[in-house]
Design a protein that fits this description.
743 residues; FAD/NAD(P)-binding domain; 60s Ribosomal Protein L30, Chain: A; 4 domains; seven-stranded mixed sheet; six-stranded mixed sheet; 20 helices; elongated
Length: 743
């Protein structure tokens, strides 16, 4: 959004979790945002799993990806800030959501939709030996391996499903169908502590489920409480002999999540966050809770089922808007009767509505149609990460194209060079060892006594609307210049421009930025010793960093590369296009998560490897892209190079986005030097475009003697840089400069 058109946020709405109700709020907010309200989504992982399709996944009807709602691009389309970190608590008095490893997030309104776990996980042996159905993500991720571990041989394995509710019954039938379809017969036992399976459902549905179990040879044990699990066995209360169980699936019904989110909140008798029928937490104005994590006062009969969470979505959205407008809240009235659909496996389902029961392929098709229709409403991107054809485009939603931040906001290299040339040479100063006369990543200054001071300054406009993340990445990026020279950063000064907000909001933004800066500096022993703040139209964070060199060592310069040296790149490329795509809701959440993990990691350990491996030249890769920074290194060294495009490491999603034509706004400025680069005839496509992608907090580009390259790569991977790669070789100076080949 352009600064001139920016609506200053005056209130904060924070959604914790991306359950069935919250994804509906995001979609509705996408279509009709409330001006002056900043929406924030807090997630411990990008994808939310739709529980209604999990039995179909178990049966083999769906792949794991089909169960997922990628909440990150959905939130971006809703113009929401995304904080990819685990929420660990709520302080309703201070109106703050506490998150892991960073300052709490203040809110005017907040809502919890964090799901549930299952009862009985604290029983002896259950956590170690049983496969719990919640959290759903963990169940989906672990199922394939647990089934593969079932013993083979002539005797069929024993599987026990604990829990006689809808989840347990569905899993019993779908596991049976899956294993038999693979030619692996199984002996199944369903154990429940209620008098009958499917408590709360109609008699006819129970009878049909019982009949289905009998036909399949599934043993049903009711009125029995599982008390512990062991390796290959399940113990029932009051029984001397355990049940044989090569796999125990624990589907015992919902229990409150153990995240501390409700530690200071009122609870129902069962331990869930207690809410009124307006979905507002009792005694906590401005805080709501929905889905399986909440219990409605006076409505203890409402089961923890997805159908109720789905119906709560529109009511929650309406009440958040009403609360923001100071209007009376709507009441949520849970339905007493709904269409129950149970997956039986083999593309058959059992359904019941108002006492009418039906089973077969037609019922499965109805369930499949309902589930897929629900999911299509939230799939911003398809399985390949391309825009989903049925979802509104950013353009159709009126989302303005925005200039990129981070290192993609640099002034072009050509303009920079021209401006410096117009200044003329600086006055002679014998204390300047490296300065404007021979530009490098950091200046090197001689101090009395023979020591050397490294100094650099770096900063950028915000690349996202999370000030803590921007502050941390800005610090990592600035430190990179000192690390690239083989130095040790010691002190930093911060320059922060805060958007012209209300005083309290401006204070919070500054606090978040500086906390992010400190999160990068403190673990490295770098002291933040001061700085300066200003007000302006957008967030800008810069740091001036000074450091020193190891005793008796000079800086790793740009001009030391020699013919025969190996070129090593320590980190993937593609941060520019990924950050640009994320702004538009075009990047998968997993891509963004992995990118952020790289952006907040310093180059300290990689620089130590470069120094110990005898690096002849080093630079960090930032806004000018690999092509620009490599050209600087070769120009200073009086050398040329050959680089293999196929050897370039890339962030997940970067090549796919470049292939689709997505670009950082600074990309074309970098690519304007394309004519000065020699490409082999087959060197084209997205890998060639990767050369010009502007990097934020990028890795190091190192020249090494060839005999040290293998050891350096092994050391880099051990140091936490798994993508480090040998990308080419330095050659004698030639008119071609750098030749990029396809292989």
């Amino acid at each position: 959004m352009n600064a001139a058109n920016r609506v200053e946020p005056v209130r904060d709405l924070v959604l914790v979790g991306a359950g069935h109700a919250h994804v509906q709020v995001l979609r509705r907010w996408m279509m009709a945002p409330v001006p002056g309200v900043r929406l924030t989504l807090v997630l411990d992982r990008p994808e939310a799993v739709y529980s209604g399709m999990v039995p179909g996944f178990v049966a083999g009807d769906y792949g794991a990806g089909e169960l997922e709602i990628d909440a990150v691009p959905l939130a971006r389309r809703a113009r929401a800030r995304v904080v990819l970190v685990r929420a660990v608590g709520v302080d309703p008095a201070a109106r703050r959501v506490e998150v892991e490893g960073r300052p709490p997030l203040p809110y005017d309104l907040a809502s919890l939709d964090v799901g549930s776990t299952v009862r009985g996980l604290d029983l002896p042996g259950v956590a170690e030996h049983a496969l719990a159905t919640r959290p759903i993500r963990g169940f989906v991720d672990a199922l394939e391996a647990r089934l593969a571990d079932l013993p083979g041989g002539e005797a069929p394995p024993h599987v026990c499903v604990v829990g006689g509710g809808a989840a347990g019954v569905e899993l019993c039938f779908t596991l049976d169908a899956r294993l038999r379809a693979q030619g692996r017969p199984v002996r199944l036992t369903l154990v429940c502590d209620t008098a009958e399976v499917l408590p709360g459902h109609g008699r006819r549905l129970v009878q049909r489920a019982r009949s289905e179990a009998e036909t399949r040879g599934v043993r049903v044990v009711c009125g029995a409480r599982a008390e512990r699990a062991g390796k290959g066995e399940l113990f029932l209360e009051g029984e001397r002999e355990p049940l044989a169980a090569d796999l125990v699936v624990w589907a015992t019904g919902a229990a409150p999540v153990a995240l501390g989110l409700d530690s200071r909140l009122p609870r129902s008798a069962a331990g869930f966050v207690r809410v009124r029928d307006t979905l507002e937490v009792e005694g906590c104005p401005g805080l709501f809770a929905v889905g399986d994590c909440a219990g409605i006062s006076g409505r203890d009969w409402v089961p923890k089922a997805g159908v109720y969470a789905v119906r709560q979505g529109p009511v929650l959205d309406a009440n958040l808007r009403r609360a923001l407008a100071g209007r009376a809240l709507r009441r949520y009235r849970p339905q007493t009767d709904f269409l129950a659909l149970l997956n039986l496996g083999n593309r058959r389902a059992l359904g019941e509505k108002r006492g009418v029961v039906a089973a077969g392929p037609v019922v499965w098709k109805l369930k499949d149609w309902i589930d897929r229709r629900f999911m299509r409403r939230f799939h911003v991107l398809d399985a390949a990460g391309a825009p989903a054809p049925d979802f509104p485009t950013p353009e159709s939603m009126g989302m303005e194209a925005m200039d990129c931040g981070g290192c993609a906001a640099k002034l072009g290299a050509t303009s920079l060079d021209a401006a410096l040339r117009r200044l003329g040479p600086p006055p002679a100063d014998e204390s300047v060892l490296v300065g404007l006369a021979e530009p490098d990543d950091a200046a090197a200054l001689a101090l009395p006594g023979g020591s050397v001071l490294l100094a650099t300054i770096d900063g950028f406009r915000a690349f996202c609307d999370d000030p803590w993340l921007v502050g941390r990445v800005a610090a990592v990026n600035a430190l990179g210049d000192v690390f690239a020279k083989g130095g040790r950063p010691r002190h930093a000064l911060a320059l922060v421009t805060v958007p012209d907000e209300r005083a309290r909001a401006g204070e919070e933004t500054l606090h978040q930025v500086l906390a992010g800066v400190r999160a990068a500096l403190d673990p490295l022993g770098v002291s933040l010793v001061g700085g300066h703040t200003t007000r302006g139209p957008e967030l800008f964070v810069g740091l001036s960093v000074t450091g020193d060199l190891p005793a008796g060592k000079g800086p790793l310069s740009l001009d030391g590369a020699r013919a025969g040296d190996v070129l090593v790149l320590t980190r993937p490329l593609g941060s520019g296009v990924l950050l640009a795509a994320d702004m538009q809701g075009l990047a998968r959440g997993a891509w963004v998560r992995d990118l952020h993990a790289s952006l907040v990691r310093s180059n300290q350990r990689a620089a130590a490897v470069a120094r110990s491996s005898g690096a002849t030249a080093s630079t960090d890769v930032s806004g000018f892209g690999l092509a620009g920074h490599l050209a600087e290194l070769l120009r200073a060294s009086g050398a040329s190079a050959r680089v293999r495009l196929d050897a370039l490491p890339d962030f997940a999603g970067a090549l796919a986005l470049l292939e689709r034509g997505v670009r950082s706004t600074y990309h074309e400025q970098n690519a304007s030097r394309r004519d000065a680069i020699a490409f082999a005839p087959t060197a084209s496509g997205p890998r060639a475009e990767l050369l010009f992608d502007p990097q934020t907090a990028g890795g190091l580009l190192i020249a090494l003697p060839p005999e040290r390259a293998a050891g350096a790569l092994a050391a880099l991977r051990e140091a936490g840089e798994p993508a480090a790669a040998r990308i080419g070789e330095v050659t004698a100076s030639s008119g071609e400069g750098v030749v990029f080949s396809a292989e």
